[in-house]
Write the structure tokens for this entry.
Amino acid sequence: MTSKARKSLICWGALSPIVVVILFPYATMLSTALKHKDEIFTFEQTWWPREFYLGNFADLLFERGFGQAIFNSLYISVGATLLSSAVAIPAAYALSRLRMPGKGAFRNYLLITQMISPIVLIIGLFRMFAYFGMINDPHALIIAHSAFYMAFAVWMLQSYFDTIPKDLEEAAWLDGASRTRAFISVFLPLCLPGVAVTALFTFVNSWNEYAMSLTMLRDASSQTAPVKIAFLTGTLYETEWNIIMAATLMATVPVAIIFASIQNYLVRGLSLGGVK
Amino acid sequence: MAAIEISKVVKTFGAVKVLDGIDVEVKDREFIVLVGPSGCGKSTLLRMIAGLESISGGQVAIGGRRVNEVGPQERDLAMVFQSYALYPHMTAAENMGFSLKLRNRPAGEVREAVLDAARRLHLTALLDRYPRQLSGGQRQRVAMGRAIVRDPSAFLFDEPLSNLDAKLRAHMRIEIRQLHDALGATSVYVTHDQVEAMTMADRIVVMNAGRIEQVGTPIELFDTPANLFVAGFLGAPTMNFSGGAVVRDDAGELRIALQVSPRTLPLPDTGSLDEGAEIVLGMRPQHIEIVGEDVQDGVIDAEVRAIEQTGCETNLIVAFGDVEWTIQSHHRVLAATGDAIRLRLDPARVHLFDKQTEKRL
Ligand SMILES: Nc1ncnc2c1ncn2[C@@H]1O[C@H](COP(=O)(O)OP(=O)(O)OP(=O)(O)O)[C@@H](O)[C@H]1O
Ligand SMILES: [Mg+2]
């Protein structure tokens, strides 16, 4: 065995407990979601279903309106991501590039807002949106989510923007580019990894958010996926694990796929400043 | 190409004044070099010309037009940065063509201009590469290319050669100067390397702590430095100094008595000095002659502290009293550490400065 192979074997060996802990819930989810209801409540549990039963998914989508919930979630998360990016990118650019008084204080203020739990604010938010007649309106959540995750986005983007040399924009200005043109042609292409990572964080946070969605969206048809899943458990006589697991699978897999597909970008973006 | 007039320019960062009343006139087609120690404000002045730094006081005019309130986009200048500042996501050709593309020139014309600049800089084979695929020297050339594709009013350089090795630097020095002449350009070049300043400049501006010490051609500055700072800053090895005073000898003649040498030296004819005047004497290492015991007048007796042979010249570190001087000779000097040595100072090449004002006498 080459030393490289041995090294990777040792690494995997050391990591395997963690891998098991991470993958166990997924395995349970997958195995349960693919089983028929009758097969779950048997005495002898098997990992492998007798047959790959897709009825749970069909039931979810066609009988229980889970498709609508996924769509709601997607709509809100994409909306929140776009809105928060649209505000956070210019804000972070200004913090990183322009000379302004009170910059440090503003940064600290952003940090402090992150220390307040959203739960504390929910009653106030509910009253506010009720006043504007926006209860059951997904746009209320788009606004609330983007507001909540914006501070983090600004903070993170600024750190990333600070690593991009100012020389490059200055060179562009001397080449004759206006500030806007230099921003679009020179600055944005270089900070794309940072923007992608930040947008992804906002998306995932918004996708998983529960308490606010539960409060603002009262109608069954406007519920988001995490809320819908919670409601699936509440049948009086039985807990339909097969349905719940199918739903959680549908809610988590898209996020996992996004993460995996832009993994390279992520690593680049997270190792701030390592971009050369 | 155009002239640049800088008059009474002041720059403050908060309470700190980093430039204090700078006056420079860069003539059309002139190659001006700004030199000075680190932190003296060279880059700040260049960036104010470029429009990247606001002007706190005074005026900058390019081609007769006041540009204080004009953005860097509209000043029609090209700048080569120390870091080169090449756009990492564009190829060498795209980097060079960017400024023309911004001016909406047709693609064919842009390509022609880029090719033309690339030929001048021997870059034709590298046009499709990204900056990360180029060596330091090649990046430097692309940065030069980006500056010359369009025909700007003036070129600004901020230590463009400081990231290159010594050999390439010497080569690029010549190449930049030739390019300047070939294009009939006006250039302002910032460096802290006095060799670059001496070899490239039409005129040198020596700066120190936010002020101009002297402006002149390289030879003027070398032969007649206006003050102690300029005298010590230009020339390698640096000029030797020693404190002294003007005295009257037994014959009634005015002579220089160095603090630490028992012998007096003849006083060069400056006409303005009187007995008792306190002075600083400066002597370039190249202008000190090693002489035999038989020479009596205008000499200093010293002791050899160290010898450095570079092959074509010999550097001697000598000491008399607590003063250490460097002597450079083109002859092979046969001396050993500890030897007594007699030095003759050529009176015509002695520099005298007032001790109080540090100005040339
Ligand atoms: N943005 C700024 N804020 C405050 N002080 C500054 C700023 N930029 C430069 N300075 C100060 O201005 C002075 C001149 O800086 P400058 O960069 O012009 O020096 P320099 O002559 O180019 O030096 P070097 O040879 O090291 O590049 C320095 O003391 C520096 O600390
Ligand atoms: Mg500088």
In short: Chain B has two domains: 4-233, 240-354. The helical segments of chain B are 42-50, 92-102, 107-120, 136-148, 166-183, 194-200, 218-223, 228-233. Residues 317 and 326 of chain B are 5 Å apart (CA to CA).
